[in-house]
Structures are given as C-alpha cells and as structure tokens.
Amino acid sequence: MPAEQTSGTNGAFQWREFLARLAQMLAGGFIGAAGVNLFLAPFKLLTAGVAGIALLIHYTVPALPVGALVLALNVPIFILGWLMIDRNFTMWSFVGMASLAGFLELTKSWAELHVVNDLYMALIVGGILSGIGVGLTFRARGSMGGTDIIAAIIRKRYSTSIGTAQFAMNGLIVAVLGLRFTLQAALASAFSIFFEAWAMDKTILGLRTTSALMVITDAPHEVGRALMEKLNRGVTYFVARGGYSMNDKEIVYCIMPTRQLSLAKSLVQRLDPHSFTTVMNTVEVIGRGFRRLPI
User: Fold this and answer.
1) Number of compact structural domains in the chain
2) Can you give the chain as a three-state secondary structure string?
3) Which of 98, 242, 266, 295 is most buried, judging by how many CB atoms fall within 10 Å of its CB?
C-alpha cells in the first residue's frame, strides 16, 4: 500500500488503520451482499453498477454465479482504473469489490429464504442495505469498483459529473432488465437504486447535516452576537453593496447543524424583522467544530 495510507510520520506501517479500513470494507461487502441475496434476488431486482449487470446475466443464465461475474466484469475496469486514476483508490476499491463478490457467493443460498413476500418492502430494504454497504466502502476511502471507477474515468476525461455518468449507466442496465423480463421488475429496480443512492449518501455524510445562514440586516453585530451566545457558533462578517441603493452593509454568515436552524431564524427575526435571510444546505464543512468527510 502507498506510504500515504499505511505509514505514519516515522514511516512505520499503520496496522491499526489498515485493519480498520479492511474491516469496514468487509462489512460493506457483507451488508451489500445480504441486501442483494435476501431482498433483491428473490424478486429478480437489480442493484446499481456492475453488480447489477452481473445479476442481470445471472437471471438470464442461472448457471453463471453472480460473484464470479462481478469479478470477471471488473477485471478490465480495474486495469483502466490502475492506468488512468488514483492507484491507492483503485487498490482499495479492488478490496471492496472482492469483498462484495465473495459474500455474494457465500450468501447466495439466502435468496431461497424469501424473508419477505412483498415486492415493495423488498426493493426498499434491499436498496437501503446495498447503499449502506457501498457507503461503508466509501467511508473507508475506497469503493466497490465497477461503475464507480468508470464514472471517475469519465469525469477525468470529459468533465462530466460522476452522478450523471452513474445515472446514465444504471438507467441503461434497468432498461435492459425491462426488455428482458418485465416492466414491473425494471421500475422496481429503479426505485431500489434510488433508495440505494439515498442510503449511500446518508452512510457517507452521516445523519448530522449542516446549513449555512446568510443574513443581510441593519443590526449585524446584534444578530452575530446572538448567534454566538445562543447557538455557540462562530460568525463571519463581510461587507457587501446593495445593487439598488449602492449602500454598504455588513452580512452575517454562520454555519450550524441543521437542528439549530429553527432557533437561528427565530433569533434573527426577533432582532430584525426586516432582515433578509438566506439558508443554504452544505455538502461538506472542513474546519474546527465540524467532521471532515471520509472521502
């Protein structure tokens, strides 16, 4: 492994960090495989990415095992990834992909258990478990390979967003499922992939979200002081000029956990009922008092 990820400042191999990442990768592969075999496979539903392609092939030719298909389909993708994108990410993604493929084979008999008989319950729970599995591998700064690596390559070469590339590839997979089997299976798989994406985001970002508050007010220091004292959050003042009046005003900028947003807006409204307040969702906040994203 590269020194950046496995060595400390003294150059020693970081066994604790290595084992923690490996355990998280294995947990992600197990949870993802459980979601597929317990909930999606019994209804011939798909998960996202290359695992979805492997499932589609398996449904058509049951003699071909899903785990082996995941490995085979990923070989050329990982060769491209090794040549074109970050090699440390590619190596850990191989660990995540191998974990998923292995657990898909180890748990394939679970598809016969039929733990739920409702299609909608299966697509929701299966999608959420698959998303948690993928999210855990991203939190370990890797992936499960497949379309994650393809999307990263496309993003690097053509400046297309990763989300757009993945949506297009998953849409094509679902369309083929609809043509080969039923429209119901295709639509159900699309909803399952939606829940998978939602669960993946929640696993990566966590349930604690943050918001940014920007207040244009005639009492900026009073508003700022109230936010600092009542919410225990820092504020920043910066000067802006009104386009119509051409007058300079101080703007109050504050980032806070979303759970504090209601109280913050109430404080601003009480101090200056004529203020202009903008609330923005934040994707990532790096700095004191906030957790850094794992990727």
Assistant:
1) 2
2) CCHHHHECCCCCECHHHHHHHHHHHHHHHHHHHHHHHHHHHHHCCCCCHHHHHHHHHHHHCCCCCHHHHHHHHHHHHHHHHHHHCCHHHHHHHHHHHHHHHHHHHHCHHHHHCCCCCCHHHHHHHHHHHHHHHHHHHHHCCCCCCCHHHHHHHHHHHHCCCHHHHHHHHHHHHHHHHHHHCCHHHHHHHHHHHHHHHHHHHHHHHCCCCEEEEEEECCCHHHHHHHHHHHHCCCEEEEEEECCCCCCEEEEEEEEEEHHHHHHHHHHHHHHCCCCEEEEEECCCCCECCECCCCC
3) 98
Residues 69, 31, single domain; the answer is yes
Does the predicted TM-score (pTM) go above 0.85?
no
pLDDT digits (tens), the chain, 295 positions: 444 445 554 556 788 888 999 999 999 999 999 999 999 999 999 888 889 889 999 999 999 999 999 999 999 888 888 888 778 888 888 999 999 999 999 999 999 998 999 999 999 999 999 999 988 988 888 888 877 777 667 666 665 555 556 677 788 888 888 888 888 889 999 999 889 888 887 887 676 678 899 999 989 999 999 999 988 888 999 998 888 888 888 899 999 888 888 889 989 999 999 899 999 877 666 666 555 544 4
Range of the domain at 231: 210-281
